[in-house]
Design brief:
This protein is of the alpha/beta class. It has 11 helices and 6 strands. InterPro entries: CheY-like_superfamily, NreC/VraR/RcsB-like_REC, Sig_transdc_resp-reg_C-effctor, Sig_transdc_resp-reg_receiver, Tscrpt_reg_LuxR_C, WalR-like.
């Protein structure tokens, strides 16, 4: 049996929750640990169930997905060895992508994504990788998000502890390269890259590669 990835499905629409749950449970390596219908329920369920991934709608009544992301981060429930968050929405809008990734989301998918894209994104998020729909990735790489604001002192301060090699790795994360591609670019082992990535996340306080990419886009040339 493949190793199981547990998922918490969060959406305010019962039909969407049921549909997503059915898709995920149909996969041998994915299992739905529970469901929630708003951000507050999501935080409490995450604290109780400790799922590998939260598949969470960004727009919900009462407490939305962005509120839940902030609260999960505040409680120390996000990041390596804890839960990852994959945001799901019908709205292909820059500000939602920017806010979600900056708050620590591992990825951002549109609800019209193909089944294979959805399940692949859940697996990628569980493995600690960024998981973004092709449309969102294309826009980020084009730099549409980073041009909207100047880096603040706090953001710049988060880079001061990084070595030159770690800054190189951060730039390549920003550019969307995988660990294997970074290893090839820097001519180092995959193990070395994983060590550098772990240190970059730890030193910058980022909870995911996607969040580190947002930081890099706003601070590094």
């Amino acid at each position: 049996m493949p190793e199981q990835i547990s998922v918490l499905v969060v959406d305010d629409e019962p039909i969407i929750r049921a549909g997503l749950s059915a898709i995920l449970d149909s996969q041998a390596d994915l299992t739905v640990a529970g469901t929630a219908d708003d951000g507050e329920q999501a935080v409490e369920a995450c604290a109780r169930l400790r799922p590998d991934v939260l598949l969470m709608d960004i727009r919900m009544p009462r407490r939305n997905g962005l509120w839940a992301l902030d609260e999960l981060g505040r409680r120390g429930l996000l990041g390596p060895g804890r839960s990852r968050v994959l945001m799901l929405t019908t709205f292909d809008l820059d500000e939602y992508v920017d806010d979600a990734l900056a708050a620590g989301a591992s990825g951002f998918l549109l609800k019209n994504s193909a089944y294979e894209e959805l399940t692949g994104a859940v697996r990628a998020a569980a493995a600690g990788h960024s998981a973004l729909s092709p449309a969102v990735t294309q826009r980020i790489i084009a730099g549409h998000l980073s041009g909207r604001r100047r880096p603040g002192d706090q953001e710049l301060a988060r880079l001061r502890e990084l070595t030159e090699r770690e800054l190189d790795v951060l730039r390549l994360i920003r550019d969307g390269l995988s660990n294997a591609e970074i290893a090839g670019r820097l001519v180092v082992s995959l193990h070395t890259v994983k060590t550098h990535v772990s240190r970059v996340l730890s030193k910058t306080g980022c909870q995911s590669r996607a969040q580190a990419a947002v930081l890099a886009r706003s601070t590094l040339s």
